[in-house]
Amino acid sequence: MELTDADLIARVLADDDQHAFGELVRRHQSSVRGLLRQLTRTDLALADDLAQEAFLRAYKNIRSFRGEARFSTWLYRIAYNCFREDARRRKELVGVDEEQWQAEQDPRSIDPGLRHDLMHALSLLPLNERTAVVLCCQNGLSHDEAARVLDIPLGTVKTNVLRGREKLKRTLAAWAPN
Known about the structure:
By secondary structure, the chain is mostly helical. It has a single domain (5-175), classed as RNA polymerase sigma factor, region 2, helix turn helix motif (Rna Polymerase Sigma Factor, Chain: A).
């Protein structure tokens, strides 16, 4: 039987089990890196550096995880904070491209031409809309969970997702079935 995230966290907390934390990293590294790739506009090296920083912070601060949300939501928040801090250092705007990230997660499920256009369409969205779309549509977070990750009001997340999706629909209208 496979251990749950909660079981692994308990092992880390009780015994400082680095193997248990390693399993948590293996389970979540792809989605965390995918989110960061969207935020960094596919700068793979920067995304990987930020993911590493996020997991280091998660390990150091695992005792602060209260279990009020899913472990993945807590990790996304840490990763998003790493991104924001780096962006502030570089004086850039903060945001996420959800559909692009979604397309990167399962490249077999989408036409390569559409994937390219989708990535481009996502890059055209304002950062706040892109981030909300990626978290909710690609990563499957609820609006409430995304609001926690982004530390913004629930209504703002809903608005950003709605606006972002509408803009993507207009941009990608040529791909609609006839």
